[in-house]
Amino acid sequence: MEVPFPDLPCPCATARRMARLLTQLYDSHLRSAQIEASQFTLLSVLDGMPACNQQTLGRMMGFDKTTLSRNLKRLEQRGWIEASAGKNRRERGFVLTDGGRERLAAARPAWSQAQQQLQSTMSASEWSAMWEAFRSVTRAAGNPRK
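The chain above was modelled as a monomer; its predicted structure follows.
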């Protein structure tokens, strides 16, 4: 029997493949709410951390500055977020607009469906192990030894 996703010799390649497939799964559900998985995630984080600045967002989500700037600009253009005053004059935070809160609320059921679809294909121990593996790999990759 052919393995649909053979092991790749590199953890980076394997993680990128997994991330692409997860993104496709969530995007397919979120399409009905006219939002992408990455946009949903940013809106969710900002909903829980109003006025969060770009540096904190980038560090928390593992985005480089350019990619995060591009994504925030798209959310601003859609009217889902707006800049807010930061802790000092050089810093600005971001908050959800009414439109952003509405979009997030409209997308939550679709996100839940994607989450349930993924979880239904795994046992409880696999689900738990997945989260532990994500945390371990994130810690290891986020603290590289040079």
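The chain has a mean pLDDT of 92.
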